[in-house]
Design a protein that fits this description.
Helices cover 1% and strands 41% of the residues. The protein is an all-beta fold. The protein has a nine-stranded mixed β-sheet with strand order 1-11-12-13-14-27-23-22-18, with no helix packed on it. The chain has a six-stranded antiparallel β-sheet with strand order 17-25-24-21-19-20, with no helix packed on it. A four-stranded antiparallel β-sheet has the order 2-3-4-5, with no helix packed on it.
Length: 342
């Protein structure tokens, strides 16, 4: 049953059916307005379909007006991914002495973003929807995709007064499980075809080097003197797809990154110890149109994905993805937009 928030008139809480998945499940679109922003959210993948700022003609996140695009080439665009975001090496890990083999959905090698039955493939249930917020829920049942445990998961999107999108992702375990979700939106602040007009700044002194399968090797290394030093703003490298180590564990909200283009700025605050930054060097929208009516090419947007460190289930020295029975964990991120004064 859909519950309207007490402080938001039902007439302002827009929701409509936009199509069905391949197996016939109904997908709805929710519209949120507040703080100078307008967002649309799809129940498929709990996906942020668009985010528009008053006074700008283009969406600040990449997406498509067509649901079919998200069922095909754009499956991760704006979605909530999990139960374990990023890569798990070989799709295998041990938990409490038992070995688990997962769906290896990345070239038959690794498990990526929860596998082929991950959060991004679900039709989430709407449990709360007001003028400027919504809450969607899904369940991760034991054995789905090979993962252990039972999880109740919810995501809450909220538009705050200072042109801020707040995303809270909460997992509550019924039995021991893994929980490391991420918001997988691609940002483009100036509406151009690529990131050449953007600069990126990250408050991280270290990053994780990768092997040929995109799995972290060794320990965190200093960014100083490497191509991964973004402590001062610069154009993001087109091949960037790495984790930046922000802290050793989850903590309070703090500012961790900034993206700037055409005088507009995106500032990211998060509770998470890692930030995966992906410049979409191997991602495009195929033949599906973006919000501008034409497909997106390579490097069309940048994904800023707060999360734990990649391959955490196989690394005892990394922040742990374990969640125990009865435990509740919430990941919070805030994306604040600052506009150029006209």
């Amino acid at each position: 049953m859909l519950a309207e928030h007490a402080d938001a008139p039902a007439s302002l809480a827009s929701m409509m059916t936009v199509g069905r998945t391949l197996d016939g499940a109904e997908v709805r679109q929710l519209t949120l307005r507040g703080g100078g922003l307008t967002a649309t959210v799809l129940t498929y993948g709990a996906t942020l379909q668009s985010l528009r700022c008053d006074g700008l003609a283009h969406s600040l996140v990449l997406g498509s007006p067509e649901l079919a695009a998200y069922l095909a080439d754009m499956q991760h665009f704006g979605a909530i991914v999990g139960p374990v975001a990023n890569r798990i090496a070989g799709g295998r890990f041990e938990l409490d002495g038992r070995t688990y083999q997962l769906d290896r959905n990345e070239h038959g090698i690794n498990t990526l973003h929860g596998g082929s039955t991950g959060f991004h493939t679900r039709v989430w249930e709407v449990t709360d929807h007001g003028a400027s917020h919504c809450t969607l829920t899904t369940r991760q049942n034991k054995g789905l995709g090979g993962f252990p445990g039972d999880l109740q998961v919810k995501v809450r999107y909220r538009l705050d007064d200072d042109r801020t999108l707040r995303i809270d992702i909460t997992g509550e375990a019924k039995s021991v499980a893994l929980f490391n979700p991420a918001f997988h939106g691609y940002w483009n602040l100036d509406g151009s075809i690529d990131l050449s007009g953007h600069t990126l700044e990250i408050a991280a002194d270290s990053y994780l080097p990768l092997d040929s399968d995109q799995i972290p090797k060794g320990t965190p290394q200093p960014v100083h003197g490497t191509p991964f030093d973004y402590r001062r703003p610069r154009v993001p490298d087109s091949t960037l797809d790495h984790n930046f180590c922000l802290s050793a564990r989850r903590g309070p909200l703090r500012e961790v990154a900034r993206v700037t283009a055409s005088g507009h700025r995106l500032t990211l605050e998060t509770t998470e110890p890692g930030l995966q930054v992906y410049a979409a060097g191997q991602t495009n929208s195929g033949d599906w149109p973006g919000h501008g009516g034409v497909p997106y090419g390579l490097n069309a947007g940048i994904a800023l994905e707060p999360q734990l460190w990649p391959n955490a289930p196989n690394r005892s020295d990394f922040p742990s993805a374990r969640i125990d029975a009865g435990q509740r964990i919430t990941q919070t991120s805030r994306f604040r937009i600052s506009m150029r004064e006209s």
